[in-house]
Design a protein that fits this description.
The complex is a heterodimer of chains A (148) and B (428).
Chain A: H1 3-8, H2 11-19, E1 31-37, E2 42-51, E3 54-63, H3 66-79, H4 84-98, H5 107-112, H6 126-147
Antiparallel strand pairs in A: 1-2, 2-3
Helix pairs in contact in A: 2-3, 3-6, 4-6
Chain B: H1 4-9, E1 17-18, E2 22-23, E3 25-26, H2 37-50, H3 60-79, E4 87-90, H4 93-112, E5 130-134, H5 143-152, E6 155-159, E7 179-185, H6 197-207, E8 210-214, H7 218-221, H8 226-229, E9 233-237, E10 248-252, H9 254-259, E11 270-273, E12 278-280, H10 294-310, H11 312-331, E13 336-338, E14 350-355, H12 360-369, E15 372-373, E16 375-377, H13 382-387, E17 393-397, H14 404-420
Helix pairs in contact in B: 2-10, 3-10, 4-5, 11-14, 12-14
The chains are: A alpha+beta (148), B alpha/beta (428).
């Protein structure tokens, strides 16, 4: 297999697309957002519960390609129980990465992305950027609802 | 027999490389076809020699432009077994199908306002009327009818699909005396299944219903004779049959086009305009409001000339061999399911499939890395995907330039997809 595919499908992405951390449904959510990628019909729901300035719980359900599912799984691993500020910042940082045409961000930012830095290569493929960002659009919307 | 190497030499784009020097294997003709240089040259020639407004102005170039525009109409009409004045230009099949649906809606609205023109009554819809479509339809031949039903009070019904991806003959009984319109595809852009048009038309005629055929896939791949098929309306897109984007056509039986109210109104489609009212031109001009896609019509002309020279019978025979090779090849890749008939009989080389455990986007990505272009997604046909138990699929579709070696490269690519995504982990 050519290097380009290994660059795109980093092991952490493949692993998370199978492990699907945080997949499930919350009984009582403060915010919930359903998002669809109209080109392929992929969809996801992200639900959040807030507690004392923290994202107490985030859960997701959905179907889609390895990129979109891994992105959701990593989101859960990195943000479940985290401060809301971290959730907001990480979302913005990830969007910045995905709109960077495959270029790495400054070293400190790239480090801050932790496992999400594995998506750097995805940003080289315009058709896949939406896949990576689908869950994060749902998170942003769910958080906005929860705070309203 | 067709001379495939000679044909390939006519398609400049096939020469290009993608993804770090890989030779392009274009298996996405079902979405849009590549263009032979004859078509590109015809459009270029029009702009360099003949460009002027058509059907207006009396200067020499305007005359020639009008001639080119109308000669294209005659050629395309002849290609699908119709007369020149039965063929209306539209920007694509979607617009052609909407033209018919809105014709019915406008006739219904005109009747409510007591302003029907002669012959329009036949298109008036009311509650209790039924519009029949099929579960195989591309959204372009489904959504306009859903909308028409909702706006007129008619009921939308449909013919279902078998597990094999063909229209279910058991459902043909849904066509009955309440059926006013029967809109159906000639060939599915997902399952590749070719519809038994004659039988459906016979039933529609017995029920007194109008037939509307989506000929988008068929006109590009099969010999099509609309008069012989006996449908009332048919639509197809130029860009799927070697012609430029931006042009398609709607066929309508002459007496129906003469009575159908216009869809778009404005310049070029009128006779006499006062501040109070307007009289319309006869068809086909009645349906061609505003400045038309003239250079594209010249390209469309060159495209049907090209296809005629190859010979649609010969092309269809070549394609059937490719279909067989595709199906045989896929059958040997474990964990790959074809969404559609498993044999090449009454079927186009449009083959949608799913790879177990691998999302279509990921399938397409790994194929793309090898230079193989396929379509991924729902191909504008969500209901048939749902019916076949998937949300999306990958789809390989062949064109007049497709070789057996390219099919083999695609099959090889499918094996690579499986190994890359770890089919070895027991998810075969």
């Amino acid at each position: 297999m050519a290097d380009a595919m290994e660059q795109l499908y980093q092991q952490v992405i493949l692993d998370h697309s199978r492990a699907r951390s945080g997949e499930g449904e919350l009984e009582s959510a403060h915010g919930s957002s359903f998002q669809v990628n109209p080109t392929c019909g992929d969809e996801c729901t992200v639900q959040v519960r807030l507690e004392g300035g923290k994202l107490e719980t985030v859960a997701w359900a959905g179907r889609g390609c390895s990129i979109s599912q891994a992105s959701l799984s990593i989101m859960h691993e990195m943000l479940d129980g985290e401060h809301l500020q971290r959730a907001d910042e990480l979302g913005d940082l990830f969007r910045e990465l995905m709109h960077g045409r495959g270029k790495e961000l400054a070293a400190a930012k790239q480090e801050d992305l932790e496992d999400l830095s594995a998506f750097t290569g995805v940003a080289k493929y315009p058709a896949r950027i939406k896949c990576a960002l689908l869950g994060w659009a749902a998170l942003k919307d769910a958080l906005a609802q929860a705070r309203a | 027999m067709i001379d495939i190497e000679r044909i390939r030499a006519d398609f400049p784009l096939l020469d290009r490389e993608v993804r770090d020097g890989k030779r392009l294997v274009y298996l996405d003709t079902g979405a849009t076809s590549q263009k032979p240089r004859q078509v590109i040259e015809a459009e270029r020639h029009f702009y360099e020699h003949t460009n002027a407004a058509v059907h207006r102005g009396a200067h020499a170039v305007a005359e020639e432009a009008t001639e080119a525009y109308e000669a294209a109409r005659t050629a395309v009409a002849e290609f699908v077994g119709a007369e020149f004045d039965e063929l209306v230009w539209a920007k694509n099949a979607t617009e052609g199908l909407n033209l018919v649906a809105y014709g019915f809606l406008n006739a219904t609205l005109n009747a409510r306002m007591g302003r029907s023109s002669a012959g329009e009554e036949q298109f008036v819809l009311a509650e209790g009327d039924e519009i029949v479509v099929t579960e195989l339809e591309h959204h372009a031949n489904l959504v306009p009818w859903q909308e028409l039903a909702a706006k007129t009070g008619a009921q939308l019904r449909w013919i279902g699909v078998t597990d094999e991806g063909r229209l279910n003959p058991d459902d043909f009984d849904v066509i009955g005396e309440k059926t006013r319109i029967l809109a159906f595809t000639h060939a599915s852009n997902v399952t590749g299944a070719i519809t038994p048009v004659e039988e459906i038309v016979r039933r529609a005629q017995a029920a007194g219903a109008f037939t509307v055929l989506d000929a988008c896939q068929s006109a590009a791949h099969l010999p099509v004779d609309l008069h012989q098929l006996g449908v009332d309306f048919a639509a197809f897109s130029g860009h799927k049959m070697l012609a430029p984007t931006g042009i398609g056509a709607l066929y309508g039986r002459r007496e129906l086009l003469e009575a159908l109210p216009p869809f778009l109104t404005g310049g070029s489609m009128v006779e006499l305009v006062t501040m109070e009212s307007t009289s319309f031109m006869p068809p086909p001009q009645r349906f061609e409001a505003g400045t038309q896609m003239v250079a594209q019509a010249a390209g469309f002309h060159a495209a049907v000339d090209y296809l005629s020279e190859v010979g649609m019978e010969a092309f269809a025979a070549h394609e059937q061999k490719l279909t067989q090779r595709l199906l045989d090849g896929i059958a040997e890749v474990p964990g790959v399911r074809v969404l559609g008939p498993q044999d090449a009989h009454d079927r186009l080389a449009v083959v949608a499939f799913e790879v177990e455990g691998v999302h279509p986007h990921d399938v397409g990505q790994v194929l793309d890395d090898a230079g193989i272009a396929v379509r991924v997604g729902h191909h504008c046909a969500q209901p048939v995907h749902r019916r076949l138990g998937v949300h999306a699929s990958a789809r390989a579709s062949a064109g007049v330039h497709t070789t057996e070696a390219e099919i083999d490269a695609f099959i090889e690519g499918l094996h690579r997809v499986r190994s890359f995504f770890g089919a070895a982990e027991g998810r075969s």
